[in-house]
């Protein structure tokens, strides 16, 4: 029910999904191949100008795409349509509405917060050739346009919007490369990049890297991941633990400490940030659950916010 696209197509529906014909809106901000040229890959000439609207302090990437004050969820349907599921304060997501077409060519799409600096949350998407595109949200559930903001990103096994991980007021991106290194690509607040830095190694076995802001209430944005237990057998499995690990950000672009804040996350095939101190999970039956962190060591009871999501690709 919730994932069936509507018969009518809202405005801004025809969203150009490939680089061909798309205006390169941020030509001064395109990065080089991130792995081979780090940290020199970042453009030295990227202009830095003040934010037009402040990032939510220490929040995860802003996911309120329609501007009603509640985080939303985006997903890609079977024919490449982009669907917006508006969030509600305490209950399930509203039915999806189509807000774009042609998203099937992207193998990774994620919420990045306000990367362009206009105060409205944006989305990034990587295509099969490794190009990274920024789609600027209009704050009303639609899009202002898109442009390429990087290339050479095909080597990353995970990319996520990290909120303001380095504490300078701009939305940042974290990527994990094939060797398990974690790299921070700070946004410059104007749709471009500041020089990347390596912030971790040995992350190759972790799953569901996510960001939901400051999960331990120390004032700095954090990163979450699930660690499957060791399992004997032909293929690595979930094992008994499936701990949810919290990597506490230092607030300056690094990590201060880490530890498990949950266990038994095995049933989920998706774990992602869902707003400030919110995680959303999907299980094998396609049920979405919302987990809200209510204190340094406490969760609210999870709430079902959607069903029938098995065949959707969720925008993380
Ligand atoms: Ca919303
Ligand atoms: Ca930042
Ligand atoms: Ca924190």
TrEMBL record:
Keywords: Signal. Pfam families: FG-GAP_3. Residues 1-22 form the signal peptide. InterPro entries: FG-GAP, Integrin_alpha_N. PANTHER family: PROPROTEIN CONVERTASE P. This is VCBS repeat-containing protein.
């Amino acid at each position: 029910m919730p994932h069936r696209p509507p018969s009518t197509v809202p405005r801004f529906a025809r969203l150009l999904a490939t680089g061909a014909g798309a205006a390169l809106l941020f030509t001064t901000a395109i990065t080089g191949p991130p792995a081979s040229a780090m940290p020199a890959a970042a453009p030295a000439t990227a202009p830095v100008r003040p934010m037009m609207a402040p990032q939510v302090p220490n929040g995860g990437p802003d996911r309120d795409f329609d501007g009603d004050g509640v985080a939303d969820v985006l997903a890609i349907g079977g024919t490449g349509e982009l669907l917006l599921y508006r969030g509600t304060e305490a209950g399930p997501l509203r039915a999806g509405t189509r807000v774009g077409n042609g998203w099937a060519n992207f193998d990774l799409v994620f919420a990045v917060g306000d990367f362009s600096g206009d105060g409205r949350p944006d989305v990034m998407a990587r295509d099969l050739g490794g190009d990274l595109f920024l789609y600027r949200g209009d704050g009303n559930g639609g899009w202002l346009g898109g442009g390429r903001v990087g290339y050479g990103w095909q080597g990353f096994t995970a990319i996520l919007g990290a909120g303001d991980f380095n504490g300078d007021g701009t939305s940042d991106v974290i990527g994990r490369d094939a060797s398990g290194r974690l790299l921070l690509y700070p946004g410059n607040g104007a749709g471009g990049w500041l020089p990347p830095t390596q912030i971790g190694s040995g992350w190759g076995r972790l799953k569901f890297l996510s960001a939901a802001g400051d999960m331990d209430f120390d004032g700095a944005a954090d990163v979450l991941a699930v660690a499957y237990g060791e399992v004997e057998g032909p293929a690595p499995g979930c094992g008994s633990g499936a701990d949810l690990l919290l990597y506490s950000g230092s607030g300056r672009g690094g990590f201060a400490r880490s530890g498990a804040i949950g266990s038994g996350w095995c049933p989920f095939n998706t774990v992602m940030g869902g707003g400030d101190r919110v995680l959303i999970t999907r299980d094998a039956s396609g049920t979405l659950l919302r987990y809200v962190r209510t204190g340094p060591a406490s969760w609210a009871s999870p709430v079902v916010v959607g069903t029938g999501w098995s065949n959707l690709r969720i925008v993380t």
